[in-house]
């Protein structure tokens, strides 16, 4: 995943864009649909995402991060692309 390469993001943070079937899962209802969502990551969050990616746990990390920073109960049915870029 070349989107995770480079160290500018490690120093300054980055914008994370995800595309895929995603949305809030709550109370037994599933509101996932094809969406594109962009969040800002600080340098520590960039490092945590990279570590999770190396450990094959990136999807779990993304769901936990989106749950905290975007919308409670956020989940991914699929992840078609992930991109880290400058803020």
Short summary:
The protein has 87 residues and is an alpha+beta fold. The chain is built from three helices and five strands, in the order αβββααββ.
Mean pLDDT: 88
Percent strand equals 35-45%
- Rough shape? elongated
Radius of gyration: 13 Å
Classify the secondary structure makeup into a structural class.
alpha+beta
Proportion of residues in helical segments? 25-40%
> What is the number of independent domains?
1
Largest sheet: 5 strands, antiparallel
Feature tags:
elongated; 37% strand; 87 residues
Commentary on this structure:
- With 87 residues, the protein is α+β, with helices and mostly antiparallel strands.
- The chain has one domain (2-82).
- Helix content is 33%, strand content 37%.
- It has helices at residues 8-12, 43-54, 58-69, and strands at residues 14-26, 29-30, 33-41, 74-76, 81-85.
- Strands 1, 2, 3, 4 and 5 form a 5-stranded antiparallel sheet that branches.
- β1 and β2 (29-30) form a beta hairpin.
- α2 (43-54) runs antiparallel to α3 (58-69).
- The longest helix has 12 residues, at 43-54.
- The chain is elongated and about 40 Å long.
